[in-house]
Write a structure and sequence with these properties.
Number of strands: 25
Shape: globular
Number of helices: 12
Strand order of the largest sheet: 3-2-1-7-18
Helix content: 25-40%
Structural class: alpha/beta
Largest sheet: 5 strands, parallel
Length: about 450
């Protein structure tokens, strides 16, 4: 059995490893366009802070381990330029030598990830403009940051990435300005969470403007609908699109948000071709249908499922899906969400009860902080539909309680009865999760 994998960052390497684990005799070839092996992209903003820490520290494992211990033929600087789905072969260009060759396959895994949305605006192809999406982007931005220290930095886009970059830059004694085109930031979060993030930005001296259209960049000046801003460095993180042009050119069917359309087994419409990761759709359990929610954990899980299904065609397993769980850091705040958002629930016409609770993260013990918990539950049944949190100290792991509850379809009545751990260094007698659940019980 010969498997060719296009893209080796998250889903691609997970699939390769699973195939070699279950079928050691399989010939597994990974064709990776960049010069980097699988890496933790979410760590890129924080690597900027450490001048002498190489970005290669973000690698999941060394290339020699992938090739030697795992037995994967992992090839760097290899760009696939054509897929012949009928003949079951791909055309490849070695970017270092310029030579082209073809590679046949029994199974093909399309795991090309996504690509940053570039601004088609005059001046945004300058050397001081950075699109923060890949490890190479990080290298370029980091080199510029330390070799030509900027006095003013402009961040275009107020998603997770640029909020994290703003945190890092502020700690480097810079005062970044964030410009967001949309009328508000973090659209998947409730206003009660969003207002805390905005207030934190203000507290830390980060200027955050929404509803801003970028017009052009000329030298150090960026002209916008909100005025002209000076900038020695511009970081653009205005979203990303699935990297699917190659797949579509081969007759592949696209689905939600232009991502590769897949079934529950992560098969595409092309014979012998599977897809997963940030280029493919993601099944959302609560919706019962596919959506697009590109994050590393889902990519790695999809890769594992693909590997299993290729090795076990007679007993394939479905990708179990996601619950839209996500978290990011913003200064001393942790901001997290799981389940359906308030906006999604409104679109679905659900009768929802929303509970907002503020409380301490610990008992009578030094340290700790405060946390705001938002529960979204079904009126009557009390079924937990969504949960969000923002605060200091232990937030993410409390959010994981709600993620687990949503996975198991628990109600707030059941959550209120959970036997959560207690000790003053870790939680109050009544953990904030229990407090929020008890308040919800009275309202549903």
């Amino acid at each position: 059995m010969k498997c060719v994998i296009i893209g080796g960052i998250a889903a691609g390497l997970s699939a390769a490893s699973q195939i070699k684990r279950q079928s050691p005799e399989a010939d597994v070839i990974v064709l990776e366009k960049s010069g980097d092996v699988s890496y933790a992209a979410c760590g890129m903003p924080y690597n900027l802070f450490f001048k002498d820490r190489p970005v290669e520290r973000l690698y999941a494992m060394p290339l020699e381990v992938i090739r030697g211990e795992r037995g994967v033929d992992y090839r760097l600087h290899q760009e696939v330029t054509r897929i012949d789905a009928g003949g079951k072969w791909v055309e490849v260009t070695d970017l270092q030598t310029g030579k082209s060759y073809s590679e046949s396959y029994d199974f093909l895994i399309y795991a090309t990830g996504n690509k940053a949305i570039h601004l088609d605006i005059p001046g945004f192809d300058a050397i001081d403009v950075f699109y923060f999406r890949t490890l190479e982007d990080t290298r370029r931005a980091k080199e510029f940051l330390y070799q030509r220290p900027p006095a003013k930095v402009l961040l275009v886009g107020a998603g997770y990435t640029n909020l994290e970059v703003a945190d890092v830059l502020t700690n480097l004694k810079l005062a970044p300005v964030i410009l967001e085109k949309a009328p508000l930031i973090l659209p998947s979060f409730c206003e009660e969470v969003r207002e805390k993030v905005v207030a934190k930005a203000r507290e830390k001296g980060v200027e955050l403007l929404t509803g801003v259209d970028i017009e052009e960049k000329s030298g150090r000046q960026v002209k916008t609908s909100a005025g002209t801003f000076d900038a020695d460095m511009v970081v653009v993180a205005a979203g990303a699109r699935p990297n699917t042009a190659l797949f579509a050119a081969a007759g592949g069917e696209l689905g939600v948000a232009g991502a590769v359309k897949v079934d529950r087994y992560l098969r595409t419409n092309l014979d012998g071709v599977f897809s997963g990761g940030d280029c493919a759709e993601h099944y959302v359990r609560q919706l019962g249908l596919n959506s697009y929610f590109p994050l590393g954990p889902a990519a790695n899980k999809q890769g594992r499922v693909i590997g299993h299904n290729i090795c076990n065609p007679d007993r394939m397993t479905e990708f179990w899906g996601i619950d839209q769980t996500a978290v990011f850091k913003f200064f001393d705040y942790t901001v997290a969400t799981t389940g359906l958002s308030e906006r999604q629930l409104q679109t679905l016409g659900k009768d929802v009860v929303k509970v907002v609770v503020d409380g301490p993260t610990r008992g009578e013990f030094p340290g700790g902080g405060t946390i705001r918990i938002v529960l979204l539950c079904e009126k009557g049944s009390g079924l937990l539909l969504g949960g969000q949190m923002v605060g200091e100290d232990v937030v993410a792991k409390r959010l994981d309680i709600l993620a687990t509850a949503i996975y198991k379809k628990m109600t707030v009545f059941e959550i209120a009865e959970l036997d959560l751990s207690y000790s003053p260094p870790y939680a109050p007698v009544w953990d904030p999760v229990l407090v929020a659940a008890n308040v919800a019980v009275k309202k549903v």
